[in-house]
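Hi there, hope your week has been kind to you so far. Do you reckon you could talk me through the fold, stretch by stretch? Thanks so much in advance, here it is.
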Amino acid sequence: MTKSVLIDKVSEKLEGLTRRQTEIIIETFFDGIKTALSKGEKIELRGFGNFKLKTRGARKARNPKTGESVDVPAKKVLHFKPGKELREMLNSGSHE
């Protein structure tokens, strides 16, 4: 699902709001998540899941083409853990 499809689906549900107003709401929501994550905060959406940044340490890797050892620097990666309701829904087979 793309952001524009999401905006269309939310716009259909919210009668009385234009597509542009819905787009502003969705953009504000995503901006809030990005801002919180950039500050190192955890995002908890009950029933959906949690987003948080984890630090992956520096390590040695191997270039598969040359076999040469390569240093990979530490970096932050986004981790998503689905909430209980989402996990149960996905595992039950009912995706509607």
